[in-house]
Design brief:
Number of helices: 15
Strand order of the largest sheet: 1-25-24-23-20
Length: 592
């Protein structure tokens, strides 16, 4: 028995599964050990396949999502496992791979082709989300405007805009469009699911141009239902309340102006002199505050005398720190953010001098806080959001290194409309939480269960040790490099929804591979002249299989990148190698 447990022989492992039980809560990990013996050890090079853009497999592995080259049609295939038998009496000889195995139709059967876009509207090929039940898929189409859209109230300036963005809820089994949701003259990050996050049946859509978080619910019947919109308003009745308050203030100001015309000028002077005497009586308090804030602190405005009432001195917007129009008020989420920062600075120490210095720092950076915009957002659970704030330039310049920019993370409860945490992107406290509870940030779908076993810092010893070595190396080389490591690590927050492959061949407790050439993340990787090796984590670290995304002979001309599409459960993978002005090379990797 002990020999079988140590052996990598597949017969020994199957026998062990029959006669012994796994420790509690480890049955899935034990079942995944069998993938060390069942690997994609054969490659079909340059497969003849339709000229489509291959996106990914669905979470349950039943469907392969593809898009046409004109970016207007959705094509869905069902994966069929290739079966063949050897001919003749002598079946022990290694025969050539059957010709039908080199055809795309032998591995996939087309279910339907659905037109999602028409005219100038195009499908975003880098966006796809599947619901937890795997019954529906969410796709996005967008229309580029011919001219720059006009400025609208509440829109952030210098933000690009799309004429129309449409989200389609499609039933994957038959291609029926169940529901749609449209956004006009807006900008949403669609590539790699950056601006959209899914948790259970909730979806958050970030409108970058209007700084609004739209929370929708996907019903089991196939319907989008509005839950809440967070941004300018935090509750459903905030807009109604502010509108009624504005109408009341307008009526009160009109009545006050009509009454003031009948008041005697002598009464006005007497009234203003009384107010002036009361305000001047606070001079000692004002001097104390000015002394604490320093001589460089500017007063927002000066009080005029009764004789100067005809030409009052209005407060300077530059001195107050408001770079917005006087008739534009802060949104609900921004007001809560500034209030939380102010209260956190005001309640740290009881020393009045230290408190005054912190408040001075808050007033000095007030405009920077007020100018923050939302970069990304994700769910932590059904009621809490992780929101990333930064500068406007960081939203537009997505290709720049996020670790070199200052950003802040906010934990927000949209049910109680309260902010629970505020962290800069160099926070060691947030880094520690990110390492220990990374799976809570990634929010894997509840079904199927293997979606929860994607390797991360919190659930995999090998990934955790590798990250610790990187931190130790940075600390030993440069004294200030650890801050850069924190920023680079926290740049992954908020996480992109469903951006990691659940394939067991990316399990770092089973296999070792070069993450510079291949990884579980949904992104292109550079190609090299040599195949990518997958080694066993068990000693003696034997070679299990290789993945070659290029041609069998090899081609060193030009720069090449490859995308990797692994089936979530089967030993099957698709690699697509692309080069400038060259046809794509599609290879199938399977077990023979």
């Amino acid at each position: 028995m002990r020999m079988w447990r140590r052996s990598d022989n597949i017969l020994h492992r199957l026998s062990e599964r029959e006669i012994s039980a796994a420790p509690p809560n480890t049955h899935i990990q034990r079942a995944r050990l069998l993938y060390e013996n069942i690997v994609p050890n054969y490659t079909v090079y340059d497969v003849e396949c339709p000229d489509y853009h291959f996106r990914k497999f669905s979470n349950d592995g039943q469907f392969l999502i593809c898009f046409s080259r004109n970016y207007q049609n959705l094509i869905v295939y069902r994966h069929n496992c290739l079966t063949f038998c050897s001919k003749g009496v002598n079946c022990e000889n290694q025969e050539e791979f059957p010709i039908k195995g080199k055809k795309f139709e032998s591995h996939f059967s087309q279910l339907y082709s659905l037109s999602l876009a028409s005219g100038s509207e195009l499908i975003c090929t880098d966006f796809f989300l599947a619901t937890d039940c795997n019954s529906y898929g969410i796709f996005a189409t967008a229309t580029t405007p011919e001219t720059d859209p006009p400025a609208r109230p509440g829109a952030v300036p210098n933000i690009p805009s799309m004429e129309k963005i449409t989200f389609h809820l499609v039933r994957l089994a038959d291609g029926t469009i169940m529901d749609e949701r449209k956004f006009h003259d807006d900008f949403i990050h669609l590539a790699h699911n950056v601006g959209i996050f899914m948790y259970d049946d909730f979806i958050s859509i970030l409108s970058v141009r209007y700084q609004a978080i739209h929370i929708l619910q996907v019903r089991k019947g196939g319907m989008f239902v509005d839950v809440r919109t967070i941004g300018p308003f935090c509750r459903e009745d905030d807009e109604l309340l502010l509108s009624s308050h504005a109408q009341g203030c307008s009526r009160a100001s009109q009545g006050s102006s009509s009454r003031n015309n009948t008041i005697d000028n002598g009464l006005v002077d007497q009234h203003l002199n009384t107010i002036q005497d009361e305000v001047l009586g606070l001079g000692s308090v004002g001097n104390m505050i000015s002394g604490l804030l320093g001589s460089n602190h500017k007063v927002a405005f000066q009080l005029g005398t009764a004789q100067d009432s005809s030409s009052p001195q209005n407060p300077s917007l530059d001195e107050v720190g408001a770079n917005v129009k006087s008739d534009q008020m802060l949104g609900g989420l921004k007001q809560r953010l500034l209030s939380y920062i102010f209260r956190s600075f005001d309640s740290q120490d009881s020393d009045p001098n230290a408190k005054a210095l912190r408040l001075k720092r808050f007033y000095y950076h007030f405009q920077h806080y007020a100018d923050l915009v939302i970069w990304k957002v994700q769910f932590l659970d059904r009621y809490h959001l992780l929101i990333k704030f930064g500068s406007v330039d960081g939203v537009v310049l997505q290709n720049s290194d996020a670790s070199n920019q200052t950003a802040f993370f906010v934990i927000y409860n949209f049910e109680s409309t309260k902010i629970l945490g505020f962290y800069p992107n160099n926070s060691e406290e947030l880094l520690l939480v990110f390492e220990q509870y990374f799976d809570h940030f990634r929010v894997a779908p509840a079904y199927p269960l293997y979606m929860r076993f994607i390797s991360s810092y919190s659930n995999n010893k090998s990934a955790r040790e590798q990250f610790r070595k990187q931190k130790a190396a940075c600390n030993s080389t440069k004294p200030n490099s650890f801050t850069q490591v924190i920023r680079r690590t926290l740049a992954a927050l908020p996480c992109n929804a469903q951006s990691h492959s659940p394939s067991p061949y990316f399990d770092q407790s089973l296999f070792h591979f070069d993450e510079r050439l291949i990884s579980a993340t949904d992104q292109y990787k550079p190609c090299t002249e040599h195949p990518i090796k997958f080694l066993s984590r068990r000693k003696p670290n034997a070679l299990k299989f290789k993945i070659n995304p290029g041609l069998e002979v090899g081609d060193s001309r030009g720069k090449r990148v490859a995308s990797f599409i692994f089936h979530p459960t089967f030993p099957f993978a698709i690699t697509v190698q692309q080069a400038f002005r060259q046809p794509a090379v599609v290879n199938f990797h399977m077990r023979r």
